[in-house]
Write a structure and sequence with these properties.
alpha+beta; Arc Repressor Mutant, subunit A; three-stranded antiparallel sheet; 5 helices; globular; disordered N terminus
Amino acid sequence: MPWVTEIPEGVSYDSSQLAPRPVAGINELLQALADPVRLDVVRDLADSPGPRPCGSLVTSVTKSTLSHHLRVLREAGIIEMRVDGTRKLTSLRRAELEAACPGLLDSILRAPVGEPATAEPAPAG
């Protein structure tokens, strides 16, 4: 069977499964964005001028793993997917995220990649 971006001819696909979901609450959003693979997907989509085929996003994981991560992001309302012919295109729901949690996406995208945040030590006393 072809990769998830290809839908074989003659096969119907229930596009309601890809219908955009409401943006989740802050806890679910942060959980979805906490995974490095999902964060890479979001960064890739944020840098893209338009929707991208699923298979062109993150190549460092297996197809089934990427499918799982895309589902988590879709269910959190971070991305949306649509069928275009035989492909599934993925895009970041930037406007909806900004409306639900102003500044969250931009803050996450500005954060250094691969470096843990350091906290200032608490003052003694």
